[in-house]
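Q: For a teaching session next week I want to show students how multiple molecules come together into a single three-dimensional assembly. I've collected the sequence lines for a complex. Could you give me the predicted C-alpha cells for the whole thing so I can convert them for display?
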Amino acid sequence: MERLPGFRDFYPEPLPHTDVWSADARQYIFEKWRSVARRFHFREYDGPPLEPLELFTTKSGDEIVGQLYNFTDKGNRSVALRPEMTPTLARMAAAHERNYKKPVKWFAIPQLFRYERQQKGRLREHFQFNADILGETDPAADAELIALLIDTLRAFGLTERDFVIRLSSRNAWQDFYTKGRRGQSPAAPNGGKEEYEFFQVIDKLDRAPESETARKLSALGFSLPDVRRFIASGAPTPELDAILRNLAARGMKDFARVDYRVIRGLAYYTGVVFEAFDATGEFRAIAGGGRYDNLIKLISGGRVDLPALGFGMGDVVLLELLKARKLLPSFDARVDVFVVIQDEELRLQSLKLAEDLRCAGFVVDYPLTPSKPDKQYKRARELKASFTARLESDEYVRITNPESRKEIVVGVGDAANHLN
Amino acid sequence: MERLPGFRDFYPEPLPHTDVWSADARQYIFEKWRSVARRFHFREYDGPPLEPLELFTTKSGDEIVGQLYNFTDKGNRSVALRPEMTPTLARMAAAHERNYKKPVKWFAIPQLFRYERQQKGRLREHFQFNADILGETDPAADAELIALLIDTLRAFGLTERDFVIRLSSRNAWQDFYTKGRRGQSPAAPNGGKEEYEFFQVIDKLDRAPESETARKLSALGFSLPDVRRFIASGAPTPELDAILRNLAARGMKDFARVDYRVIRGLAYYTGVVFEAFDATGEFRAIAGGGRYDNLIKLISGGRVDLPALGFGMGDVVLLELLKARKLLPSFDARVDVFVVIQDEELRLQSLKLAEDLRCAGFVVDYPLTPSKPDKQYKRARELKASFTARLESDEYVRITNPESRKEIVVGVGDAANHLN
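A: Of course. Below is the structure for the complete assembly, covering every listed component.
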C-alpha cells in the first residue's frame, strides 16, 4: 500500500531512500522557527487544518481557488484543507481580538494543502512558518516583522551573502496604476477588477512571455517600457524608506532592498509586500508576505477593523537551500549513555540504572534482550554513545568514554554525576 | 464566519473564551511528550494526515470504519483523514524496515480525525502521542514501552496516586475463549469472526447493559458469571508476570496491575494490551495500546513480518486530568527584557539594543510606536518583564529589575551580561 501522491513520509535519519523526508530535519526547522519567534515575543496559535470552503474562496483571489484541496463532507458541508493560514488567523483574530493588547504578534506552523493537476514530484502539502502583526499601521510594524524574517533565516546560518529581502509596495503600484489610467477611459474604482488584473500581470513579469505581457498591459492601457522604467527607478516610498532605516539601525542594512518586481499574487494585500530570495536566484522564493489591512474587516463582515501584516516561509525551499549551502547538521541516531548488560544476573538492576539516568535527563538505551558484550559495545559505537555504563555488581558501575577510553568505577547512585 | 463543528482553535493565553483552547498548553504537552520519548531513545517520524481509505478500512476492525472522516478527492481517489497512526506506521515500516536496526523505537505526535454523527461538544480531531517498538517479541519490549508511558505521565507531575496502568492480554482471553468453545459446536478458527465478537462484548462489559451482555455471551457459548470469575482471578500470564517484574525493577511497581477487563476494541491487537486510567475513574482512558504482531505483515501483503507494539495518548483527556489535578503551569505572556524608549531621539539605537539582546537569546519586546514612559513601564509589568532596559544615551543603558527595583547603568555593549 502506497501513500497518496504529493504527500510526504518523514523518517528518522539516516534516511532509507531518496523518496522520503527527514523527520529530524523537519523538527530542527520547526524548533528554530519557534525559538526565534519567541525571542521576538511572537506568541503561538493554531486553527483547524479543515475550514469552511467559503473562508478561502471569497477572500484570497483566483490564484488560490483553482488549487484548493476541497470536498463535501459527510454532513454535506463544503470544506477545504487549508491552503494558507491568513484567512484562519483573520477569522480567529476577528472572533476574540478584544482579549489581546495591540499590537498582537502571533505565529503558527501549520501544514498547508493544495490540489493541482498532478505534476511529477509536485507536493500537495507543505509546512509553513507564519508570523503576523495585527493592530498597527506604522511601518515600524513592517520593519519588526521583516527583522523577524531576517533573524529566522540567520538562525539557520544563512548570511547576507545567501539571501535578500526584496521590498515592494502595493501603494506604489496603485499610484502608478491610477496615474496611468488618468485621462483614459473611465478609471476603474480603486481595488477593482482591472487593477487586480494589472497586479497579476506584474506578478508574472519574470515568468510570462514578453509579448503576452506587453499585449495584456496594452489592453489595460499601459506600456511594458513604462512598467520596466518604474521598476528600474526603484525609488522607495516614504513607508519603504522608514522600513529600510529601521532595519539599518538593527544592523540589517545589507539584507533588504527595494525591488518593485515583487507584488505578490494574493488579492488581499494592500501596502508593503516583500519576498525573501536566495542570492543566487536558483530557488523559488524562500518566504513572502505583506500588509493586508482590509482582510479582517472582510472576514468579520465589517464587525472588526484591524490593520495587519504577515509572512509565510515554507519548509521545502528552505530545506533545499540549507542542503545546498551545507547548513543542515547531521541527525544520526545518538545517545548520551548506552547501558551495557554483561552479566544477565544484573539485568533488573541495569534497568533501574537506565531508568535513573533517564530521570536525570539523559538519553539512554540498552539491549532489550541478552546479547554478547561485543555486540553491545558495537551498538554503543553505532549510537555514538557519549558514555557506556556497565554494572560491575549491585553497587558499582563502570563508566567508559568510548572516545577517550577513560574509565571510572563509581557507586550506582553516583553515576549521573560522572556523565559529562 | 465560524470554524467547522468539532474542530478547535488554539489561542495564546490568557484564553479569550471558554470555547477555545490554549496553544500554550498544547505546546507544553507536545514538548513533554517529545522530551521523554527522546530520553527513552525513541525517534520521531510522521506520515501524511491524508491516506488511502483502504489503509484503514481493511485492517482496523468495525470499531473505526463507522467513524472515518473519508471522502473522494478531485482525482477520484477514496481517501480518509487519518483516524489513528498505527496503519501509517505499519505502512512506513514495511516500506523501509531494512534501513533500521531492530528493535526500532519510534514516536509521532499526529493530529487524528473522526467523523461521527454530531454530538454536542464532541471533538472531530485530537492530537495523539504515539510510541511503538518494532521487531521484538520479548515482553522486555512491552515493559520498555509501558515504562515510557509511565514516565511520560510522571513528567507532568502525575504520581501513582493519580493514575494506574491496567495490564491485560489477548492471549489470556484467547485461551479462555478456546477452552470455552471446546466440545461445543465446531470451534471458530483462531482470530475468526466469532472470537472478535466475543472480544467486542468483553470490551463493552462495563458500558453495556448486563442483560444484553449475558445474552450475547450466551449466544457465543459463554456465561457472564464465568467471564466475571476469570476477570476476578486476575492471574497474570507468564508474559504479564515478566512485564510486572521488569517494571518493579525500575521502581514502577505501584503504577501497573493486571486487569482483564481491558481488551481494546481494535481488531489488530494480538498479545499484551493495556490502558492508563486516572485513579478516581472520573475520566475516559488516558492512553491505550498493545501488541499487533500481525499488522505489518497484513499491510505489506505478507512481504514484511515484524512483531510490533505501541500506545497512543490523546491530548484531550490528559489536559482535563492535568487541569483537575492543578498540574498545568500558567502560560501568560512574559518577556525577559522590555526595552523602554523614553527619548524618541534614541529609538533607532534602542532597536539595535533590542536586536542585540534577542541575538543573545533573550525574549525582548519594545513599543513599536512612541508612547508615554508610564504606559511603557505598565506594559513591562503586564508582560512580567524580568528586566527593563532604557537607553540613557548612545552609550549607556539603565537596566532595572522591576521586582527588586535594583537598577544599574552599564555600557550598551555590556547589557546582556547584566540580565540575570
